[in-house]
Amino acid sequence: MNATELWQRYQKWLYFQEGLGFYLDVSRMRFDDALIKELQPKFDKAFADMAELEKGAIANPDENRMVGHYWLRNPKLAPTPELEEDIIKTIEQIEVFAEKIHTGAIHPPKAPRFTDVISIGIGGSALGPEFVADALAPDFPNLAIHFIDNSDPAGIDRIMTQLRNRLASTIVIIISKSGGTPEPRNGMIEVKKVYAGQNLDFANYAIAITMPGSQLDELAKSENWLARFPMYDWVGGRTSELSAVGLVPAALQGIDIRAMLEGAKEMDEATRVADLKKNPAALLALSWYFAGNGKGEKDMVVLPYKDSLLLFSRYLQQLVMESLGKEKDLNGNVVHQGIAVYGNKGSTDQHAYVQQLRDGVANFFVTFIEVLEDRKTSSPEIEPGITSGDYLSGFIQGTRQALYENHRDSVTVTIPQVNPRTVGALIALYDRTVGFYGNLVNVNAYHQPGVEAGKKAAAVIIDLQKRVMEVLQNEKIALSLEAIAQKAGASDQIEAIYKIVRHLHTNQRGIVVQGNFGEPSSLTISAN
Questions:
Q1: Which are the contacts of 386, defined by CB distance < 8 A and separation ≥ 6?
Q2: Strand pairing partners for 334?
């Protein structure tokens, strides 16, 4: 297309939501009218199915549960008065609790105010709060936040060492739906021991965010923790940021959670419109479908041109890949669906992987995230009439054009500034988009059997390690890997046993190893 034709296409496909100051440009995706005509019946079904979803239809048959994260930002949509009341009450309780923490009405036994908060979670219980904290936390937050989002001992040590002189004024949030998920459970146990090491009663510092009646809920109740907030079975981890999972950490930092909810609510309303051209989530789903031929054949590269949105690509990585990465469709056919997501930020990537994006393998499409406001104050001139923000704007426009000229498609999402309303709107936009796209390609966007399989496989290794140690402790002589495997009833797991032994030996965990680790068959192992 020439410049005039591109301008006409831009105007034809530009979406603008005035209340949020939100723009979506899909004009640089090369879909045509024939594809839109082909997909129209699927979109009609997607609009109808999404409406049923919001009314409380069972969307996750694996677990026989509803999917109701939309109700979190508009409780009136909840299918029962009891659910509506519970959502409203929880938000109010979060606000009251945060206010009492900020004013010192609730304070630690050995300090006048809480100064810090540790948030312990995994997956959506970590990525959402981390993204929001990075995007929206004030320069001097009411409480500084720190995340333990892995079972890495060195990572836990790093956080606890940083806080060793402020532990007596640090709240700990444990986020786990069941209370049995290993990563947050492990983090809780380790942190609890550090508090005990400083003669601090953990219960005076601990908050549980979990399902009522869960293991964690019962523990928090029995030990009289500082507070408990609910998680719901109808909210999946990757769509939980606007539940207590994300709202409690945000409120403690001083982020306006009502504004986040209002922004999400307004975007939800925009994405309910049953008209492709007037629905930004439907337009995004169309773009994703076109880019990957409805089969995820191209990756999504997310480039936010704002430092505070750096973690948006990580947040979207889980939301998109966990929602859409499925082996089978709803009819049981093997389809291996999904869209791989990666990204960093602009204009950093002008000097990183944009070279490959323009000239290398064309196995991707780009999502540019543009922020119109440069900064809160006026900008100095870098050269006559030009500011740093002008350069940033030039970089995003120039990269978009350079990619298009070399047949690399892109979408551009534009917001006026990074604030709680616009961040809430972005979260809601992509919540809906994965739902629409999942409908277009006939997969269940609301379950995650692959994640569960990984958890089960990890549990098998832990069980095997226990059996290996039991064998070694019962034997009086050193054993080969093969002998250990046989006595442990795991003759087909010699490689796993080798890796267990290597790990235990490296960490001085009660075994003696003779031989060369580079030659596994030479090893003999005994209990220390």
A1: none
A2: 328
Say what the pLDDT of residue 4 is: 95
pLDDT digit string, tens, across residues 368-384:
999 999 999 999 999 99
Gap between the Cα atoms of 498 and 521, Å rounded: 10
Enter the tokens of residue 492.
């087909």
Helix (H) or strand (E) holding 125: helix 124-136
428 has pLDDT over 80: yes
107 tagged catalytic: no
Q: Are 369 and 362 in contact (CB under 8 A)?
A: no
Q: Between these two residues, 344 and 448, which has the higher pLDDT value?
A: 344
- Catalytic residue, from 45, 89, 295, 455: name it: 455
pLDDT of residue 64: 77
> Which residues fall within 8 angstroms of residue 164, CB to CB, at 6 or more apart?
none
Crossing angle for the helix pair 244-253 and 257-270, nearest 10 degrees? Answer: 140
397 CB contacts (<8 Å, ≥6 apart)? none
The pLDDT score that the predictor gives to residue 178 is: 86
- Give the Cα separation of 382 and 50 in Å (integer): 49
> CA 453, 457, 458, 463: dihedral to nearest 10 degrees?
140
Which of 262, 266, 322, 370 is labelled catalytic?
322
Q: What is the pLDDT of residue 449?
A: 76
Exactly one of 12, 351, 456, 476 is catalytic; name it.
351
User: Known catalytic residue: 455?
Assistant: yes
Spatial separation of the C-alpha atoms in residues 481 and 475, rounded to whole Å? 13
- 184 neighbors 176 (Cβ within 8 angstroms): yes
The label of the residue with tokens 């999402």 reads 413
Q: Which of 245, 367, 254, 392 lies closest to 312, judged by CA? A: 367
Q: What does pTM read for this prediction?
A: 0.94
Torsion angle (degrees, nearest 10) of CA 88, 90, 95, 97:
150
Task: Round to whole Å and give the CA distance between 356 and 180.
Answer: 43
Query: 240, 125 in Cβ contact below 8 A?
Result: yes
Sign of the CA dihedral with 427 first, then 431, 437, and 443 last: positive
Give tens-digit pLDDT for 84-105. 999 999 999 999 999 999 999 9
